[in-house]
Amino acid sequence: MQKITIISSSVRQGRMSNRVALYFKNYLKENHQINAGIIDLQEMSLPLLNERLKYLENPPTALLRISEEIKNADGVLIVTPEYNGGYPAALKNMIDGLGEEWYRKPVAIATVSSGAFGASQVLTSLGFTLWKLKALLVPSFFQVAKVQESFTEHGSPVDKSISDKNAANIIKELLWLATITK
Ligand SMILES: Cc1cc2nc3c(=O)[nH]c(=O)nc-3n(C[C@H](O)[C@H](O)[C@H](O)COP(=O)(O)O)c2cc1C
């Protein structure tokens, strides 16, 4: 069975995109019997890193934990909001704080917004960063618009059949990549 890690990228008080991270955790359990862990950047509370992990003399414990999680994962699903057309600084801080962990790592992206466009602009910047790190990007995305209306606080989708159909699209590709790179 593949090991999948979900990254919940918003550290904002009152955040909404974490609902989508919880949804995917449930989806993977329900449909693939996978117990995915969530790297919650709010909980991790990483400091602003001034260097990559491999060059740090006293790396923060949270960064070491994240590095291990990603190294051990067969695939990673990043759930990210869109902030001013890009992805959150907390996610950039974490991605850049690592390095080889991303090499040939299958990565899927789910983007979340409170507006009508499903955070589609974030795909350009986050996809490019992951490509630079030589991650294997799943060529299919999961986009959530009006998250406050489409998912409950505990990650239940208002329209389960549509959400599950869209989730199946990226999870199928992520699990395939995770299998061939294992
Ligand atoms: C600093 C900031 C910038 C934002 N910029 C955008 C944006 O460019 N496009 C968009 O659709 N929503 C934008 N939003 C709204 C988010 O879509 C909204 O907060 C959503 O709930 C996802 O983020 P969250 O998980 O932090 O709640 C922005 C929110 C913040 C806090």
Overview of the structural elements:
The protein has 182 residues and is an alpha/beta fold. It has one domain (4-181): Flavodoxin domain (Rossmann fold). Helices cover 42% and strands 15% of the residues. The chain has helices at 18-32, 41-44, 61-72, 89-97, 122-132, 147-150, 160-181; strands at residues 4-8, 37-40, 75-81, 106-112, 136-137, 142-144. Strands 1, 2, 3, 4, 5 and 6 form a six-stranded parallel β-sheet that branches. The longest helix has 22 residues, at 160-181. The chain is globular, with a radius of gyration of 15 Å. The relative contact order is 0.20. The mean pLDDT is 97. The structure holds flavin mononucleotide. The site of flavin mononucleotide has 17 residues, from loops.
